[in-house]
Design goal:
The chain is of the alpha/beta class. The protein has helices at 3-10, 17-25, 57-67, 84-93, 106-116, 156-160; strands spanning 46-49, 52-54, 74-78, 98-103, 124-128, 141-146, 162-172, 175-181, 187-193. The chain has six helices and nine strands; from the N terminus they run H-H-E-E-H-E-H-E-H-E-E-H-E-E-E.
């Protein structure tokens, strides 16, 4: 087990056995540019090109624990970037689940797909598109997670494409928010402040 995974477990950011196993199995070093592989153990965001980053391990761990993914679920990963978080999710949901990884920058989508192919996941699909619009073709989703800040509000399409009983984890401004869908139009909302993210960009903005 890598040092940063040990640290995240010891500090209580990683708690769930299945997520811990994913962090052990899916190596962050396989999802960064070759020039940064030696820095992949550092608990910090790293550049992956096109003004984007691979999020720091602590943030990914925190958000995945909030998302609470389970085997067999269908999950939308918005802003898939390097493909690391998408691959962690694919590991967690297993062969009976499915992860759709959507990324607006074609070159980054290709980068993420190539990285993930090292692991041979059959339950992970990469899509080039505007993640603020979700992915209607496969909605509704059990869980949705967003890797970039949605500024002041959550894209309504993401809420609409979530199943009742589902969970949406998304940065808004500089907080992480958990939205738990209690009815067709009802949500329980919980804020976790103190994070920094790259902006979520809509093709319509």
């Amino acid at each position: 087990m890598t040092n940063f995974v040990n640290n995240l477990v010891e500090k209580g950011y990683l708690k769930s056995e299945r997520i811990i196993s994913a962090f052990r199995a899916v190596k962050r070093r396989d999802f960064v540019p070759d020039s940064l592989r030696e820095e992949s153990e550092v608990n910090a965001p790293l550049p992956i090109g096109y003004g984007q980053t691979i999020s720091q391990p602590l943030t990914v761990a925190f958000m995945l624990e909030l998302l609470a993914p389970n085997a067999g679920e269908k999950i939308l990963d918005v802003g898939s970037g390097s493909g690391w978080q998408s691959s962690l999710l694919a590991y967690v949901v297993g062969e009976s689940g499915k992860v759709f990884a959507i990324e607006r920058i074609p070159e980054l989508s290709d980068f993420g797909k190539e990285n993930a192919e090292r692991y041979g996941f059959k339950n992970l699909e990469f899509i080039v598109g505007d993640g603020t619009q979700g992915f209607k073709e496969e909605a509704p989703f059990d869980k949705i997670i967003v890797a970039a800040s949605a500024f002041k509000e959550v894209p309504p399409e993401l809420k609409n494409q979530l199943k009742v009983g589902g969970r949406l984890v998304i940065p808004v401004d500089q907080s992480i928010w958990l939205f738990e869908k209690t009815s067709d139009h009802g949500f329980k909302e919980t804020e976790y402040p103190g994070f920094v993210f790259v902006p979520l960009i809509s093709e319509r903005s």
